[in-house]
């Protein structure tokens, strides 16, 4: 799941069955609730690196990072 803030509006998204992002209402409402659930904030670069590492492990080959 991810939460993006665009022009002051919050957009919560999750990967769907087709591996595309789609809207969700499952992300907790407050930052305190999110922290107490053990979720941590990641910026876009850290999130991309985390996803790339997961793909590397699943496929057995590195993903190009240009």
Report on this model:
The structure is a single chain. This protein has a three-stranded antiparallel sheet, with no helix packed on it. The longest helix has 16 residues, at 44-59. It is globular. The protein has 66 residues and is of the alpha+beta class. The protein has helices at 31-36, 44-59, and strands at 2-6, 9-15, 21-23.
Features:
2 helices; three-stranded antiparallel sheet
Summarize the structure.
This protein has 66 residues and is an alpha+beta fold. It has helices spanning 31-36, 44-59, and strands spanning 2-6, 9-15, 21-23.
Which structural class should the secondary elements be placed in? alpha+beta
Helical stretch tally: 2
Strand order of the largest sheet: 1-2-3
Stretches where pLDDT falls below 50 for ≥5 residues? none
Beta-strand percentage range: 15-25%
Query: Which percent bin holds the helix content?
Result: 25-40%
The SSE string, one letter per element, is EEEHH
Largest sheet: 3 strands, antiparallel
Secondary structure tally: strands: 3
Shape: globular
Rg of Cα set: 14 Å
Average per-residue pLDDT, rounded, comes to 83
**Oligomerization status of the protein chains:** single chain
Distance between the termini: 24 Å
Architecture blueprint of SSEs:
Blueprint: E1 2-6, E2 9-15, E3 21-23, H1 31-36, H2 44-59
Antiparallel strand pairs: 1-2, 2-3
């Amino acid at each position: 799941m991810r939460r993006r803030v665009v022009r002051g509006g919050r957009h919560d998204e999750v990967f769907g069955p087709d591996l595309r992002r789609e809207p969700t209402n499952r992300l907790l409402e407050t930052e305190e609730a999110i922290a107490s659930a053990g979720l941590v904030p990641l910026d876009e670069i850290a999130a991309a690196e985390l996803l790339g590492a997961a793909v590397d492990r699943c496929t057995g080959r590195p993903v190009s990072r240009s």
